[in-house]
Amino acid sequence: MSNEKIVEIRKLSKTIGNKQIIKNLNLDLHKGEITGFLGPNGAGKTTTIRMMVGLMKPTSGDILISGKSIRTDFEDSIEKVGVIVENPEMYKFMSGYKNLVHFARMHKGVTKARIDEVIQQVGMQNRIKEKVGSYSLGMRQRLGLAQALLNNPEFLILDEPTNGLDPAGIREFRMYLRKVARENDVAIFVSSHLLSEIELLCDRIAIIQNGELIDIKNVNEHQQSRYYIEAKPSAQAKQVLEEIGFTVQPHENGYLIDTEPEHIPGAIKLLTAAGVDLYVVQPHRTTLEDQFLEMTGGGEIAQAHTK
Amino acid sequence: MLKLIQNEWMKLWSKKASWIMAGLLIAILFANAGITKWIGSTSPAPETEWQEMETMNLASAEDQLQNPDIGPAQQDYYEGQAAIAEYRLANDAAPFKTESLQQQLLDGHMMLSLVTLFTVIVGAGIVASEFSQGTIKMLLTRPVKRWKILTSKYITTMLFALLFVILTFGSIALFSWIFFGVGDGAFLVWNGSEVVEGSYWVEALKLSVLSLASTWMIGTFAFMLGTVFRSSSLAIGVSIFLMFVGVQLVFLLQRFEIVKYYLFTHTDLTQFYTGFMPIPDITMAMSLTVLTVYFLVFMVISYWTFSKRDVTA
């Protein structure tokens, strides 16, 4: 994974009416990295993304793509960007192929061969001549991806790309994105309010709340290893653990201890020797959801696929 | 820019509505020619001799010339009419009959209000539909500046109007040739000092170009409304309403000075050559100036809102 900067967001602010939607946002995106953009509804994800693709004008600050300003050098800065903003709305009265020809004409140097290549890439060769109106949502999503890939983008930006897709569709879409990121070494920036999706897809996560970037973290960052222990009588268990020297935190019906796996068998022996009955000993992982809720203080986050 | 226009043209003709409009236009013109033929063949009384008509024309033109209220353009027109009528009677030069290819082409410019109607529908929808379909997001996230996109849409609307004008005259020529054939007669013009023979198709072309000013202005107005309000039904409604009511308002405003700066006083440029002028003391130069100013205002509003707008839909 190269660490070349492709996008720089600098002191980005947006005020609509007298409400400041985005407050002084700074963020860098790197080649070959998938960055998730996470936040509660209304936090400013869509506004930020719309400013990044030229649909909205920043009140102040700037966005540089490949070093070119989106405000003063729009055509050059957006030349190598692929965009899917929410559901990709296509011209329903035209065939998928004509839609692609239409968008290809708006870029420099997208040849007919490239169009065919992209169609192959998203696996749409069988139905590309049919009208978009007859496509399923999943197929439209694929066509949306195809149009975003036409210009060989170095930077792909996706706003809620899986809205309205069923779990199978989401999975399929995720696979395509991964493939594209790997094969073409593009930077991908994807906003979503679906935590599980971001967790599965992204290398890095930027979290926004009330228009402010509150955290940027890597998804597979080494976490402090933790164990959850449930035993009875619990007061005695706590005493034993503290005697060994662990910091003990109450959690649900038992305790959490911070320790490496090699200390666990010893601890179990000591607990058993002290006459404590063990019910549960298991590694404890905080999920992204827990972290997210912790950071944003709960809030109106939509839970993924709770239905 | 050519590619953008190509895109717009492709989208326009991928819609069924465009083909329906073209079909409708041809059908109406066919019906019009057919009905004219039918009335001509069933009317029991033989037609009035053309000499009789010309005598009446002469009398009414002379009558008009006595009227102190007519403007300079009308004065010229009626002098010309009187001279032509005199010439026809003196030299036994018959005019074209209504039921002839030539006269149908000369009157063809009156059919251009149909083109205006269809241009309004296309112009109102060409920007608004991108918003209502949500495709505007896909369109504006390309490495193309917004003013270029809007320009391609405007040019496409005007090309559509032009194509329909050609279609109108093509259909009129074809259908009147089928129904009436080429008639006998002479086309005469008054060049200011004498009556000479003129070319009827040059005259037809001149009148239709002048009529197009109205198509152009109302089309541009609809385009602006569609761009500003992003609703094609609103833009079509208001434009068509104004197309009919706007001209009537000229008569209501007749007594006020403001009428001279009112758009619809000037949209019909053929008025300088057909003698019918609600406001007699305007001139062609004045009309062209007023139309240009309105055009610029419409364009500035369209471009300004389109390039400043935050797309949130």
From TrEMBL, chain A:
Alphabetically ordered keywords of this record: ATP-binding, Nucleotide-binding, Transport
Record has Nucleotide-binding as a keyword: yes
SMART domains in alphabetical order: AAA
ABC transporter domain sequence ranges: 7-235
InterPro entries reported in the protein's UniProt record: AAA+_ATPase, ABC_transporter-like_ATP-bd, ABC_transporter-like_CS, P-loop_NTPase
Keyword Transport: yes
GO molecular function: ATP binding; ATP hydrolysis activity
UniProt similarity note: Belongs to the ABC transporter superfamily.
Record PANTHER family: ABC TRANSPORTER, ATP-BINDING PROTEIN (PTHR43335)
Protein name: Bacitracin ABC transporter ATP-binding protein
Organism expressing this protein natively: Planococcus maitriensis
Automatic annotation (TrEMBL), chain B:
One GO term describing the cellular component: plasma membrane
Segments traversing the membrane: 20-40, 110-133, 154-180, 200-226, 233-253, 282-306
Pfam families in alphabetical order: ABC2_membrane_2 (PF12679)
GO molecular function: ABC-type transporter activity
Organismal lineage: Bacteria, Bacillati, Bacillota, Bacilli, Bacillales
UniProt key word Membrane: yes
Keywords tagged on the record: Membrane, Transmembrane, Transmembrane helix
Protein name: ABC transporter permease
Top-level division of the source organism's lineage: Bacteria
